[in-house]
Design brief:
Layout (H helix, E strand, L loop, with lengths): L1 H31 L9 E17 L5 E17 L3 E14 L11 E14 H8 L6 E14 L5 E14 L2 E10 L19 E10 L4 E12 L6 E3 L2 E3 L3 E14 L3 E15 L15 E3 L2 E11 L7 E9 L43 E10 L12 E11 L16 E13 L4 E12 L10 E11 L1
Antiparallel strand pairs: 1-2, 1-21, 2-3, 3-4, 4-5, 5-6, 6-7, 7-8, 8-9, 9-12, 10-11, 12-13, 13-14, 13-15, 15-16, 16-17, 17-18, 18-19, 19-20, 20-21
Length: 465
């Protein structure tokens, strides 16, 4: 069972690294994202960008992993009358690790995927373009492989194959979602075979929101169904099955107060049923798995103060709370998860929230506070340094349930540690962007047998065509 635990810990390290890569990838996309000029009857837009990236990441065992990633992205868009839109984007990557440094043991790897491919129809714009009619009501349909950022991203922020329908009536908007995960979704359960590149889950839900001045309150229900069909897997001496069907009911809002304060808040309650651990966390004896109820919750509150100066300076404060389960050894995995015969109070979902570069914990059994600041120090000049942004984030981490398990071995103490992160985004020219990231995590009293800092470094340059 100890060997199985070490394997599960290695898989958890791979899951954490994949989330770190995804966070950086999204930030780089924002720096190179193409925009469609509005108001043109027919537009064919295409292009590409090439990124060269370097990662140096310390794992929980204090081993440093070096990755050189080359990434090429090509896209094409056909937009007609701002009514019909066809979009496709493909990505090819080549990962070059130092010998023995890959988290999954596969070594250097090349991959190519179609990461977005959808059709979008806008009825309101069709009426305006073809009949000269304007209306406060609208219907928008988007079908295909698309990125879905549900609410503020606490519960779901990933790519799905399916459809979204958006109905607007004056200030009210209803969004309906139905789709399945694309196979490259990173699953939260790192003990499940194929969690990093073979995830099959269905998502179905609706969100009602309203525009009230500068505020947009919303409420939603999202149902997740586990379509992964792996049979029992032997992990150590324990045959382990995997099934996690969940639903989420959430409320929240986003908006601004005046010209300087921007906010976002989201609360989610999680229900459903999942399989218990295949061994008893107290005795380590193999046991029968049972389906148990899920009762969990999470909260994310973000507040930004915009100074309104030429340097676009801002201060940020964010708090994340996510419930945990006191009989779990691991807060997200089935293996070492909830004990048979008890309710599962560990929150687990499919969102992506900034929880630091180096530590990068799951939003599960977590208390995290982030204080940040950023500015464009040369924003009041006209030189090539004008689009350089620098920033810093300070994180403090604790467990929500001190007795509960975490994504790595911990004691019953609350304090997980703290981390300062610094970053730079520099749009050198319209076609060249440079990004630097560095974070160092200092473990706290709850981290078992680890008093050494963990470092994360990233450098990437992107060329757009």
């Amino acid at each position: 069972m100890l060997a199985a635990g070490a394997t599960a810990q290695g898989q958890a390290g791979a899951e954490r690294f994949e989330r770190q890569l995804e966070q950086i990838r999204r930030e780089m996309r924002l720096m190179a994202r193409p925009e469609v000029p509005p108001g043109q009857r027919a537009l064919v837009d295409y292009g590409a960008f090439l990124s060269f990236n370097l990662y140096a990441v310390d794992d929980v065992l204090q081993d440093t992993h070096i990755l050189r990633r080359t990434e090429a992205v090509a896209y094409a868009r056909l937009n007609m009358d701002n009514v019909h839109e066809f979009y496709i984007r493909g990505r090819g990557t080549y990962d070059d690790y130092n010998s023995g440094d890959s988290f999954d043991g596969k070594g250097d790897e090349a991959d190519g995927v179609v990461e977005l491919c959808f059709y979008r129809f806008d009825l309101g714009r069709a009426l305006a373009a073809y009949r000269g009619q304007t209306t406060p009501n609208n219907l928008v349909v988007q079908l295909g492989r698309q990125f879905v950022h549900w609410g503020n991203g606490l519960v779901l922020s990933d790519t799905l194959d399916g459809g979204m329908v958006e109905l607007t009536a004056g200030p009210l908007r209803l969004e309906l979602l139905g789709g399945v995960s694309w196979r490259h979704m990173i699953d939260f359960d790192a003990s499940r075979p194929g969690f990093e590149d073979n995830t099959e889950r269905g998502f179905y839900g609706g969100m009602l929101s309203a525009q009230v001045g500068a505020h947009r309150p919303f409420a939603y229900v999202l149902v997740q169904r586990d379509y992964n069909d792996e049979g029992p897997q032997m992990i150590g001496a324990a045959p382990t099955r995997f099934s996690y069907d969940s639903w989420y009911a959430g409320i929240g809002a986003q908006g601004s107060f005046g010209n300087h304060v921007v906010y976002g808040v989201e609360f989610a309650w999680e229900g459903g049923r999942g399989l218990s651990s295949s061994f008893d966390p107290a005795t380590l004896a193999v046991t029968d798995q049972t389906r148990e109820d899920i009762e969990a919750a999470a909260l994310d509150v973000r507040l930004d103060y915009l100074f309104g100066d030429a340097r676009r300076s801002r201060l940020s404060l964010e708090t994340v709370l996510a419930s945990g389960d006191d009989d779990r050894l691991h807060t997200s995995n089935t293996f070492g998860g909830n004990r048979s015969g008890t309710k599962d109070h560990a929150f687990n979902a499919f969102g992506l929230i900034n929880t630091s570069f180096a530590f990068a914990p799951n939003v599960s059994n977590l208390t995290a506070v982030r204080l940040g600041a950023s500015t464009f120090p040369f924003g009041d000049t006209s030189g090539f340094l004008r689009q350089m942004q620098v920033g810093i984030d300070l994180f403090i981490f604790g467990k929500f349930n001190t007795d509960g398990g975490f994504t790595e071995p911990t004691t019953d103490d609350w304090y997980l540690g703290w981390e300062p992160d610094v970053y730079m985004n520099w749009q050198i020219t319209s076609d060249i962007a440079l990004a630097l990231r560095y974070g160092v995590f200092f473990p706290g009293s709850a981290i078992v047998n680890d008093e050494h800092p963990r470092n994360f470094f990233f450098a990437g340059i992107t060329f757009s065509f």
